[in-house]
Amino acid sequence: MSESAANEALSREVLRRRTFAIISHPDAGKTTLTEKLLLYAGALHLAGAVHARSHQRRATSDWMELEQARGISITSTMLQFEYQGVLVNLLDTPGHQDFSEDTYRTLMAVDSAVMVLDSAKGIEPQTKKLFAVCRRRGIPILTFINKMDQPGRHPFDLLHEIEQTLGMTSVPFNWPIGEGSAFQGLFDLREPRLLFFQRTAHNQRKAPMRVESFPHPSLAATLGEAYGPLQEDIALLSGAGTSFDRDRFLSGELTPVFFGSALTNFGVEPFLDAFLHLAPPPGPRASAQRIVQPTDEAFSGFVFKIQANMDPQHRDRMAFLRICSGRFEKDMMVYHNRLGRKIRMTRPHRLFGRDRETIDEAFPGDVVGLVNPGLFAIGDTLCSAGPLHFDPIPKFAPECFGRLHSPDISKHKQFQKGLRQLEEEGVMQVLLAPDQVRREPILAAVGDLQFDVVVSRLQSEYGVKATVERLPYVCARWVSGDPAAVARVYWPMDTLRLTDREGRLVVLFGSEHMLAYCVKDHPTLQFQSLEEADRAAAAG
């Protein structure tokens, strides 16, 4: 293939890719919408049964044992499928408030996001937190207001809340016909036309959709009580509605809004069709050296997630690599920026939940799974023309702390292996007391539920029983300065001195007041957050 033909082929592959994450507050219906998008794309035969087409294998986005037991998403998963000639990379992020750190890393790897809102609850605390992450990155957001088949707030109230709470213009692309149990379809504001849906048995199959033109002579008879309110809403939207501006959408200032019910499949197909046209293909990425364009001939990508034991049959670690530019090929040699040497890309995989299949090539926007024999860490940059280093992935400061107990001494090796691998994944950070180097480490986590994840995964994946004793500390600071000055410090009783894996001094504080007191009392010392300490270490 000539160079010009290769460049044209690369451009085509970039333009037909969409890489996005679904974000929401817990219980807004994020995982249900994920499953229904797969159903309509043909990646699943039956919603709930979750069998991948052509392979007939079980593959859910919530694959972890604790996720299935609690009915929540705990770890981000990758789902790739093709729909209408577009290759979609869907990253299903954790919805639980304790897992914003894993979500943050995932949001570094996407080009757009779908925000799912509960029609009764609207903007919830986790929604605001995740939206702030998207805004900092300038990620364009599409909004899907879910559960329209249940009692909820008026659509105008929800649009107003989006604008007032998030400071983002909302532009509805469709409008619900009927409310709650009377919800029967959508009015397409772009055509315009009427979309009516029918329920299916157990909501496992695509909801049949009937399209009718608008205006329609028998519309009043067809809609019944919903006719009057719909006419009034359409008049208001026509007179005062904001028109869609693509540039504002791409800059994160405006969100197109869609209504529906993921559970009953109402509105899922129109949303998926609109998403393909609205969501942007892979764009440029900032690096320390230059702006990297997806159509650049040289390959580049970065690792944003490490996951161990996704499949019990393999018992290995998988590194999630987001491709940013060029063409990725199996067995190609790439430069590993952190290690400062070249490595071979053997055994690359396409991921569907915890299932995998070997691939020969991939393109910008794709997420490739690399079997990780200890070579990769979160934030690593890989490229064919190095050195190159993409902007680092920020870290969240730990807010919860606990002492990990493991009574079975005979499982010490498994315990240490599991602990190290979970730390490499970013589940938590391990801190050690000077007099307890071998046993009972202190865990530092963003959220309390992560302690339950550690205990569950140590048991299920490494055969180690453990418990976590919660500790009464609220924040941690990495303390540095003149060694003699550090040694002279008299630390109050409401503190705990530890070291991290790099041997740096970490002090836990029982209150923000105590932290402020120590900072004021020792002006020559540095009291840094985790992100500040890592940035200083990288600069030094």
- Record the strand order, biggest sheet: 18-17-23-14-15-22-19-20
Provide the CATH topology of the largest domain.
Rossmann fold
Please, how many helices? Answer: 15
Radius of gyration, whole Å: 25 Å
Category from helices, strands and their pairing: alpha+beta
Shape: globular
Q: Return the average pLDDT rounded to an integer.
A: 86
What CATH architecture of the largest domain do you see?
Answer: 3-Layer(aba) Sandwich
Largest sheet: 8 strands, antiparallel
Please give a structural write-up.
The structure is a single chain. This protein is globular. Residues 49-64 and 70-74 have low confidence and may be disordered. With 540 residues, it is α+β, with helices and mostly antiparallel strands. Strands 18-17-23-14-15-22-19-20 form an eight-stranded antiparallel β-sheet. It has 15 helices and 31 strands. It has three domains: 17-78 and 111-278, P-loop containing nucleotide triphosphate hydrolases (Rossmann fold, 3-Layer(aba) Sandwich); 285-383, Rossmann fold; 400-539, Peptide chain release factor 3, domain III (Alpha-Beta Plaits). 28% of the residues lie in helices and 28% in strands. 44% of the residues are buried.
Throw out a few tags for this protein.
Alpha-Beta Plaits, alpha+beta, 540 residues, 28% helix, 31 strands, 15 helices, Rossmann fold, seven-stranded mixed sheet
